[in-house]
Amino acid sequence: MSQGQHQPGIEPGQEVEIGLFRPEDAPGVAACFRAVYGEGYPVKTYYHPRELIAAVQRGQIIPVVARTPRGEVVGVVNMFNSAPFKGVYEVGAGLVLPSYRERRLNHDMIGYLLETAVPLEKVPMGYGEAVLNHVYQQKTQHAMRYVATALEVDLMPAAAYSKEKSATGRVAAMMAFRSYQPHARQVTLPPRYAAALREIYAGIDLQRTFLEADPGAALQGVTELEVEVFDFASAARVTVREIGADLTRRMDDLLAEMRGRGVVVIQVWLNLASPLVAAAVEVLRPWGFFLGGPLPRWFDEDGLLMQKVPAQPNWRDIKIQGQQNQRIFDLVRQDWQELQGGDPAREGTSA
Predict the structure, then answer these.
(1) Residue 163 has pLDDT above 60, yes or no
(2) For 235-238, which contacts have Cβ atoms below 8 Å and span 24 or more sequence positions?
(3) CATH classification of 14-123 is 3.40.630.30, yes or no?
């Protein structure tokens, strides 16, 4: 089915009910994804009803759907696991059939998700990624009371937005979090980023105490890495489960492999509970890795995003909304500039 058509057999203009996913909704969810994305959506679970039902039963995906009185699915939005700690749920994978897009259904489904599904499913932490080729998703994050903590530079290729023609270069994203359950954590700050991280944390309503790590600490043991490559985005995410004495060699091998696969953006997630996190930061920086920001409860303990991007990031097209978001942008770009040994004139970055 070509993109932009409504599903055959679903009459436009019907009344719509918002509710939690039921197993009988799964074929309709798959049909919605095909109607909007064809076969091109990168997460294939939504195309396969049995897989989707199983993922929902395991608690990996929490869908909310919009359905007609006949039970036809015309929209869906999800929370799903994408962090190392399975108590962190990302808000996303949402869509509405074109023939129902004048009804504020996406707004209503997100409201139901946050107000009904989150407490019912006892979600500890939620987060979302707002793409920064416009400010609309940032405004939605603010309305949801999600607070920005980290900037993902050049995350997505412009080709992902070719239909709407809203991007001329790679597109950044802002990660924003909201805690739904009280939790206190101790955070080990790399001295290089201590001031920046304290400033970002000051904008978040979280119980945190801070220590500073020793950047000269001797790395011991064996590094444990998990790598996920997103070929459609030419990007990779690296979860560092354990920081070991072989970190330099492991990263050297990994970077060579990623070059061979055409990967241009690499994100590394470090654990801010590790006393070796500062030493790991110093290992990464000579390869061009720079600050992204803190990730609350990413490992259950907080995480730290480090990132490596093409030689000249697409700073010019980043659109920023809000004081916290702007400050994170400034801190991240400043760290990237320090790696370049200069301070180029600031380009248009806010709206």
Answers:
(1) no
(2) 235/155, 235/156, 235/263, 235/264, 235/265, 235/266, 235/267, 236/263, 236/265, 236/266, 236/267, 237/266, 237/267, 237/269, 238/266, 238/267, 238/268, 238/269
(3) yes
